[in-house]
Amino acid sequence: MPISPARLVFAVTTDLSYDQRMQRICGSLAQAGYAVLLVGWQRPGSVPLAPQPYAQHRLRGWFQHGKLFYLEYNLRLLLYLLGQRAAAWACADLDAALPTWLRARLGGQPFVYDAHELFTEVPEVVARPRVQRAWQWVENFVVPRAQLRYTVGPALARLFAQRHPGCPFGVVRNVPINETQVSDYQLLDKSANPASTLLYQGALNVGRGLAELLAALPQVPARLVICGEGDCSAALRQQAARLGLLAAGAYPGGQAEFRGYVLPAELRVLTAQATVGIMLLENTGLSYYYSLANKFFDYVQAGIPQLCIDFPEYRALNEQYEVAELVPDLHPATLAAALARLLPGGQPGPHYHRLAANCRRARAEWSWQQEAKTLVQLYADLLNAR
User: Fold this and answer.
1) What's residue 190's pLDDT?
2) In whole angstroms, what is the distance from residue 183 CA to residue 177 CA?
3) Measured on CA atoms in the order 12, 16, 21, 22, is the torsion positive or negative?
4) Long-range contact list for 377-384, CB < 8 A, 24+ apart?
5) How far apart are CA 79 and CA 99, in angstroms?
6) What's the pLDDT score for residue 285?
7) Rg of the chain (C-alpha set)
8) Is residue 259 over pLDDT 90?
9) What's residue 124's pLDDT?
10) Which of 51, 196, 323, 376 has a CA positioned 20 to 30 A from the CA of residue 28?
């Protein structure tokens, strides 16, 4: 009688459609022979789930934000997990950790903590000390109880290990799949674009440098496309309107364009057609300062240089392959001057082309094909140890 594949269950608070890291993780583990289930949350604007090589389920509830959301999500997640079976139970970040740990404990299976960020140090938490203390308690509780721990970058892995002695963290970087042939074709195709395009992808939240970028944009002869939504969506649109960046003029659709949420497949096309990627963060907490964001690697895979904050992880990667124009701060004058070095007169110059060539060299190494090997080995070691 054939042996059923080991089943892995992952829990997240996202709606699954835009969570590229979990799509890559679950897809690679399914390809490695595991039966994988990814559990998320149904949002009011959620699009239908796309077919994936693993099972997907969205929980539904009344609340979408704040304490009541986390309470409802955790209760509904626990009730759902009680009806499931698995060889290991994994959560992405602290907001899904407690019910996932409890289900693993009740079944006697391993609990896995996948830290996408230093949750207790994100700006929204740092600014609220009581909330931060609550999440710190959750971290202190679940990390020592995990049989497998990994995060997105070496700096965060070291920081977690310092906070929790005896609890080592592996590293699975949040990098995209290397699609060299597609990227090369799109890189050639975009060369005919008459206007240079800056692209930001990600959440429109506090500390992302977007207000400063909009303030610098009138000094930059390029248009800006923003893909994503977040807590600052309305404020950023209002700022762009005040600056006249949404009005048609030299740029038919305005100098700044807000695309809203964009599905991963479309986002890859937009990224490859852009001229410069934007990867800016404010030092509002250790999570941002030691971050290793997926968009850094997305721009490299697309073959486009980027304007990037000079934080430790990005500096280390840029020393390996110079793919970014690093900036020491987010002052609008600093950003405008850096973009002028990349786009003198609004068009790519020699410095830009040198960085673009480095992107094409780096993307074979900085690819999900490499990170997936580490991921699969981590789960093989976990389950073989039982």
Assistant:
1) 46
2) 11
3) positive
4) 378/148, 378/150, 378/170, 378/172, 379/8, 379/29, 379/32, 379/34, 379/88, 379/148, 380/32, 382/88, 382/110, 382/112, 382/147, 382/148, 383/6, 383/87, 383/88, 383/110
5) 9
6) 85
7) 21
8) yes
9) 84
10) 323
Distance between CA atoms of residues 79 and 103, nearest Å: 9
Contact call for residues 147 and 126 (beta carbons, < 8 A): no
Backbone angles phi, psi at 252, to 5 degrees: -55, -40
Q: Could you give the CA distance from residue 287 to residue 108 in angstroms, rounded to a whole number?
A: 32
* Rounded mean pLDDT, 302-315: 96
State whether residue 266 is helix, strand or coil: helix
Encode pLDDT of 139-175 as tens digits: 999 999 999 999 999 999 999 999 999 999 999 999 9
Task: Give the three-state DSSP class for 32.
Answer: coil
What mean pLDDT do residues 215-221 have? 96
Confidence band for 185, pLDDT divided at 50, 70 and 90: very low
Based on DSSP, count helices (H) and strands (E) in the chain, helices before strands. Answer: 16, 13
What is the three-class DSSP state of 314?
helix
The upper half-sphere exposure of residue 221, i.e. CA atoms within 13 Å in the direction of its Cβ, equals 11
Q: What is the DSSP string of 111-156?
A: EEEEESS-GGGSHHHHT-HHHHHHHHHHHHHHGGG-SEEEESSHHH
Q: Which H or E element spans position 306?
A: strand 306-309
CB 121, CB 287: distance < 8 Å: yes
Q: pTM value?
A: 0.86
- 3-state SS of 56-75 is EEEECCCCCCHHHHHHHHHH
The three-class DSSP label of residue 175 is coil
* Alpha-carbon 98 to chain mean position: 22
Residue 94's SS3 state is helix
| 149 CB neighbour count, 10 Å cutoff | 22
**For 324-367, how does the pLDDT look when each residue is reduced to its tens digit (9 = 90+)?**
999 999 999 999 999 999 999 999 999 999 999 999 999 989 99
What Å distances lie between residue 217 and 3, 198, 295, 332, 337, CA to CA?
59, 10, 20, 8, 11
Nearest in space to 64 (alpha carbons), one of 76, 78, 52, 81: 76
